[in-house]
Automatic annotation (TrEMBL), chains A, B:
Keywords: Amino-acid biosynthesis, ATP-binding, Cytoplasm, Kinase, Membrane, Nucleotide-binding, Threonine biosynthesis, Transferase, Transmembrane, Transmembrane helix. It comes from the Bacteria. GO terms for cellular component: cytoplasm. Pathway: Amino-acid biosynthesis; L-threonine biosynthesis; L-threonine from L-aspartate: step 4/5. The keyword Cytoplasm applies. It is found in: Cytoplasm. This is Homoserine kinase. ATP binds at P107, I108, G109, S110, G111, L112, G113, S114, S115, S116, A117. One of its GO terms (biological process) is threonine biosynthetic process. One of its GO terms (molecular function) is homoserine kinase activity.
């Protein structure tokens, strides 16, 4: 990654003093599309405040909302490391100094693309500060590098929707090929994060290396059906297609009350229900906001009864991606 | 299948004396969509002439173009067996008599859905003869049953496009869920059938029961990309997506000169190249007719040089499916 020279003219006179950026949480896999699909939501999301300072280099000034779990050391923190990488590739790391406040509005290890949201917010912020020399497509490799630093895998199914907004398809990685998919207007997500720990690495390790071809055929029939349903805004087809026969059976084991939450969601009219990313957050996909509100309410009640604390979020698909806040 | 009662009123006064039907050959899998995708072509295809006779029952009068390989016994012949099944379910098998001429315009065991084309032609013919009491959707289960009788598997990736026309997706089998996909206007198929024997059963048995999850992810990323490309008429995306990393490496072994044919096709500008169904027919997907003509010509020359006889066909995607011929 680093040592790539990015040939962009930076107008030093136009660099901003500071910028404040929001980047959205994301639901990777979109239930049936393991490692290829994902979508962004309006809330939660992370925030980066970035300040230009005289002393060259990238430094973390403060982190809020991480319970002290993220490193303040700029070389170890993914956000600052990615920002620095971009400055190096632009050839201006010896000339520009920035300091970062990172405000996490969502829990770490929630399965909602927490690290992706922070990385994307940081990279979007430095790009905005510099006068947007890079397109989103050009920022993407730095976001993927951030995922590699944070999770040990250069997956793009969280960073792609976090950066591009909407629903994204990672067609392939060699080279990275991100396709924006259409977003049916009434598609909502009701997300519940049960406060239990499921580290991404462990969740991945549970998954078997080999799968039955006949199960894979079921899975890619559903993926193809979902893509088709999105293009046609066909909610019934979307609902018929959003089943995960391969990954959910394994990962659901790590999530308390998963099948009871699923029963509640489907009974209340969800188009589909499943795990967000590697969990433990779960997501109900609905047509319209009201059903998503009702489902998250009922699921939270159920978890409370079982003495499990939780957060809930209801959101349409965020089609914008990261944005500069005023 | 049989013993289902199909509740349709047949107007005996309006039954036709005879009908002649064409049903198209099909390219199953569409290179990357094993067992779920397929499309119909304008040529080749099979023809059924059906005559109403006084004596109840279904009989085969003649078969042309099969080199004597298909049974004339009406109980053993797939076409007549499916027609009979439909008459039984309609409750009129004791009242109606039909005789069938089957004219095969394409080789058996070619990987072009030969049995599907015949079955679909037969079922479309009896439906037309009876005044079209069934919709295409209602005819579909009888077509699938025909595949089960002919191949031992009730796959629908040939019968679905043969009956519905265009490009079809089998989203799932339980229940059968067939989605028609959009057909980009300039999409052409250049098909070459090298005259070597690759029975479907053997071709299936070669395929491994288990696959690597990481390969399956590559495959379903490509499938999702292809579906997206079809909806957007994005030929570049279609081309990037149409790769089969799972099935082709195994099946290609059975097809002489496969990789040399592939090299020729891609060199001449094919969007993609691969195996049609279980082979040995191969197909070049192209933008426009001229490229497909050139590719099939060059591939046939190459095969001739290697003393392999072949047939070639160039066709746009057949969006109509079966039709009554005048």
């Amino acid at each position: 990654m680093s040592k790539n020279k990015v040939d962009k003219k930076i107008d030093f006179a136009k660099i901003l003093d500071n910028v404040r950026v929001f980047a959205p949480a994301t639901v990777a896999n979109m239930i049936c599309g393991f490692d290829i699909l994902g979508f962004a939501v309006d809330k939660p999301g992370d925030e980066v405040k970035m300040y230009r300072v005289d002393e060259p280099g990238v430094r973390i000034r403060s982190i809020e909302g991480d319970d002290g779990r993220l490193p303040l050391d700029a070389d170890k923190n993914t956000v600052s490391a990615c920002v620095k990488l971009l400055l190096v590739d632009l050839g201006i790391d010896k000339e520009i100094g920035v300091e970062i406040d990172l405000i996490k509005h969502m829990p770490i290890g929630s399965g909602l693309g927490s690290s992706s949201a922070s990385t994307v917010a940081g990279l979007f912020a430095i790009n905005a500060l510099l006068g947007n020399p890079l397109t989103k497509e050009e920022l993407m490799p730095y976001c993927v590098e951030g995922e590699r630093l944070a999770c040990g895998h250069g997956h793009a199914d969280n960073v792609a929707p976090a950066l591009m907004g909407g629903i994204t398809l990672i067609r392939g990685y060699d080279p990275l090929d991100v396709i924006k998919l259409p977003v049916p207007e009434d598609l909502y997500a009701g997300i519940v994060f049960p406060q239990v720990d499921v580290p991404t690495r462990d969740a991945r390790q549970l998954i078997k290396e080999k799968v039955l071809l006949k199960d894979a055929v079921v899975q890619w029939g559903n993926i193809a059906g979902l893509i088709s349903g999105l293009y046609q805004s066909d909610y019934a087809l979307i609902s018929r297609s959003m089943h995960d026969v391969l990954i959910e059976p394994t990962r659901a084991i790590l999530i308390p009350e998963f099948y009871e939450m699923k029963r509640i969601a489907l009974e209340e009219g969800a188009l589909s229900f499943g795990i967000s990313g590697s969990g433990p957050s779960v997501v109900a996909i609905t047509k319209g906001q009201a059903i998503a509100e009702r489902i998250t309410e009922k699921i939270q009640q159920h978890l409370t009864k079982n003495e499990i604390d939780s957060f809930k979020y209801v959101s349409s698909v965020n089609v914008e991606g990261p944005k500069v806040l005023l």
